[in-house]
């Protein structure tokens, strides 16, 4: 996938605060345009690069059968099932891109040529309550 200098990536491990980070980044890059943010769903503002990998042919066919005759739903499904790199190629700049892929699987020049916000957390850390026995 060719990178553009004004691309903005939000990269994270799943369940690490990705969604609120996407919203925050988009609002900052869009001069806090809350009305536009409310009018366009977050999924339409960002391309999830590997989302199509989560849709097996069986799931895709089942969802298409459930939505037979609903052209708007089928159109959205066609968009979501397309490879993220194809969707990104069609986007105008600046592109907002989301990924859960590890940095080792992303383009090697990503950090040198685009803006990347990497979200990290320790998902195994749990709050601990320590009781003193005095």
UniProtKB/TrEMBL annotation:
Keywords: Transferase. The keyword Transferase applies. GO terms for molecular function: sulfotransferase activity. Gene3D superfamilies: P-loop containing nucleotide triphosphate hydrolases (3.40.50.300). Pfam families: Sulfotransfer_1 (PF00685). Residues 5-124 form the Sulfotransferase domain. It comes from the Eukaryota. The keyword Transferase applies. Belongs to the sulfotransferase 1 family. This is Sulfotransferase. It comes from Papilio xuthus (Asian swallowtail butterfly). The lineage of its organism: Eukaryota, Metazoa, Ecdysozoa, Arthropoda, Hexapoda.
